[in-house]
């Protein structure tokens, strides 16, 4: 591990941790807005207690997400100073809009929503949570605008060795943005729906306010199924776009070492050896990769070795092959988790139609454990996206090795020390977040009531739990 390795490790750990909370925040705000709309239209005051319960969990998630997110931009100037200088003029616009418009918008209306239950009218209060939901989505849009530039640089010009913004409109119309943004938002709705399903299942198993948690269970099941189906289509569009925007990432995701014929199979599973550059025990579906990439049954997919030769000629000598095994397996882990969520949500909706979901205790217990699926899918998707872009930090423009801070400005010892400090602080935040989540989940709809201590079996990480 050299300085570059530690800098990458630190950014990966802090970003993955932050991304645990972002999709739940975006999706839960949307579900809260739907719940409150039903509450206002129906006039059922019991729904208010349910919304406040989910609101408390949303606020915990939002608070931890904000704190962990603040560190990301600081790292640009600490460990990645050369990268910050290179893209600062381009990144400045979308990140400034995200902070000054989207983040302040959602923070302001979260305050109105949280403290305004008996201070503003129901319709104003409802408008506040819809603006929160819109603000979280808008915040994601601007962050992904910046990330899309790293994946597919557009709207820039090179001046004295740095990228400067030439067209803000080009950033907003970046093809990568419009395949990445829908996939991320729909995945957020799916993630939050499974969060609600898992917690609702926990309450239903213990017969806590069953009628109200049946309502949240129904809503989450329907949103989860719709989101799971749409995520597949959005993900398919994003994967197809890789054929032209990042062919090396597509080849690495399939462990495709050499160019295929006009009928490329899709690798369901294989044992990938990056050192020998061979795949073993392959299970394949004929023609499927061609179909996914071209939406027809004929079309060749360029292999890793051929793309390496093209890049060496285009960019100069060097190794342009990303770590193939992590990209390959993370892609399949994401697909597996997404498929399981589709199957579970479809079965949940099926039970809804038969009004028998509360009788299936085995299924409710399965739903408790299914909470891990969206976290696995989101993390695996992020790893595939970012690791698959290597060795570039800005694709085709700036290598990751050139983006890291110099050893003179930021010694490796400082990076290691900050990594240790961040690990300790983030670990403490994780303990606090888990403690608050399990307490409020166990307390249910009345957090002010005297509650018994949790048993070992009801701890968050053991026994029958969420």
TrEMBL record:
Main location as per UniProt: membrane
Biological process annotations from GO: aerobic electron transport chain
Keyword line: Cell membrane, Electron transport, Heme, Iron, Membrane, Metal-binding, Transmembrane, Transmembrane helix, Transport
GO-annotated molecular function: electron transfer activity; heme binding; metal ion binding; oxidoreductase activity, acting on diphenols and related substances as donors, oxygen as acceptor
Source taxon at top rank: Bacteria
GO cellular component assignments: cytochrome complex; plasma membrane
Record flagged with keyword Mitochondrion: no
Signal peptide bounds: none
Compartments, record wording: Cell membrane
Pfam families linked to this entry: Cyt_bd_oxida_I
Residue intervals passing through the bilayer: 20-41, 53-71, 91-112, 124-144, 185-205, 217-235, 329-350, 415-437
Keyword check for Membrane: yes
Topology relative to the membrane: Multi-pass membrane protein
Family recorded in the similarity comment: Belongs to the cytochrome ubiquinol oxidase subunit 1 family.
Alphabetical list of PANTHER family matching this protein: CYTOCHROME BD UBIQUINOL OXIDASE SUBUNIT 1 (PTHR30365:SF15), CYTOCHROME D UBIQUINOL OXIDASE (PTHR30365)
Record protein name field: Cytochrome ubiquinol oxidase subunit I
Lineage: Bacteria, Bacillati, Bacillota, Clostridia, Eubacteriales
């Amino acid at each position: 591990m050299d300085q570059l390795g530690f800098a990458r490790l630190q950014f990966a750990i802090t970003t993955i941790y932050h991304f645990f909370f972002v999709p739940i925040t975006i999706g839960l705000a949307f579900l809260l807005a739907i719940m409150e709309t039903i509450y206002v239209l129906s006039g059922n005051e019991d729904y208010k207690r349910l919304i406040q319960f989910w609101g408390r969990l949303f606020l915990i998630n939002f608070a931890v997400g904000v704190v962990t997110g603040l560190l990301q931009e600081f790292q640009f100037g600490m460990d990645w100073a050369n990268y910050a200088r290179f893209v600062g003029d381009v990144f400045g616009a979308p990140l400034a809009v995200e902070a000054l418009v989207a983040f302040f918008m959602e923070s302001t209306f979260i305050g109105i929503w949280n403290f305004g239950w008996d201070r503003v009218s129901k319709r104003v209060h409802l408008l506040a949570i819809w603006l929160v939901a819109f603000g979280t989505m808008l915040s994601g849009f601007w962050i992904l605008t910046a990330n899309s530039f790293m994946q597919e640089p557009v709207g820039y010009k090179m001046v004295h060795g740095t990228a400067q913004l030439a067209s803000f409109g080009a950033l907003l119309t970046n093809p990568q943005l419009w395949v990445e943004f829908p996939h991320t938002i729909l995945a957020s709705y799916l993630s939050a729906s499974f969060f609600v399903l898992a917690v609702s299942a926990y309450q239903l198993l213990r017969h806590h306010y069953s009628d109200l948690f049946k309502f949240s269970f129904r809503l989450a099941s329907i949103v989860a199924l719709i989101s799971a189906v749409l995520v597949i289509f959005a993900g398919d569009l994003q994967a197809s776009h890789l054929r032209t925007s990042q062919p090396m990432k597509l080849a690495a995701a399939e462990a495709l070492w050499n160019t295929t014929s006009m009928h490329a199979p899709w690798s369901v599973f294989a044992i990938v050896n990056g050192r020998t550059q061979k795949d073993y025990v392959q299970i394949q579906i004929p023609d499927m990769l061609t179909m996914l990439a071209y939406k027809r049954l004929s079309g060749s997919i360029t292999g890793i070795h051929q793309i390496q030769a093209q890049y060496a000629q285009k960019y100069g000598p060097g190794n342009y092959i990303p770590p193939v095994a992590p990209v390959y397996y993370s892609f399949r882990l994401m697909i597996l988790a997404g498929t399981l969520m589709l199957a579970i949500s479809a079965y949940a909706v099926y039970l809804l139609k038969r009004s028998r979901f509360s009788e299936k205790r085995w299924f409710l217990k399965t739903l408790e454990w299914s909470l891990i699926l969206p976290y696995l899918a989101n993390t695996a998707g992020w790893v595939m996206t970012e690791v698959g872009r290597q060795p570039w930090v800005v694709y085709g423009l700036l290598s990751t090795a050139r983006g890291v801070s110099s050893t003179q400005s930021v010694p490796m010892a400082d990076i290691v020390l900050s990594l240790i400090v961040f690990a300790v602080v983030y670990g403490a935040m994780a303990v606090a977040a888990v403690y608050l989540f399990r307490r409020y989940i166990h307390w249910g709809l009345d957090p002010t009531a005297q509650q018994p201590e949790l048993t070992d079996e009801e701890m968050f990480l053991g026994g029958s739990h969420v």
